[in-house]
Amino acid sequence: MKVILKQDVKGLGKKGELVNVSDGYAKNYLVPRKIATFADAAAMNELKNREASKAYQLAQEKANAEKAAELLDGKTVKVSAKAGANGRLFGSVTSKEISEKIKETYDVEIDKKKIVSEDIRNFGTYECTLKIYSGITAKLYVVVGE
Q1: For the chain, which domains are there?
Q2: What is the pLDDT, as a whole number, of residue 90?
Q3: With contact defined as beta carbons under 8 Å apart, do 101 and 78 qualify?
């Protein structure tokens, strides 16, 4: 008998999956405990709609990530920081500051966790890698000045 799981079941499947189980297991355990529902026409239609919606959402996220990568690839962001007498910064330029400058300059929101850069503790130009989405990256140059 085919059922659609409403929650994760160890050894059987994850929430939202269509699984094939024995009739007794479905009728006496899964359905009465509201762990699963019978896979009738309405439930199957709802499952297909949910999967289509999820696929559409993923496609939209990927398209937006590709646009952002195309816009930011090879661009430069200028960050100002205070430094001591020998040109060494007080502290360092963090990925949070870079993320804020990207938002301010190019109006693209990039999470600070997706910015990979070396320690920026001196003035100069540094190369950062933006891991925007799975398999989509962009190179960004950060110019640190006073």
Answers
A1: 2-64 (3.40.5.10), 66-145 (3.10.430.100)
A2: 84
A3: yes
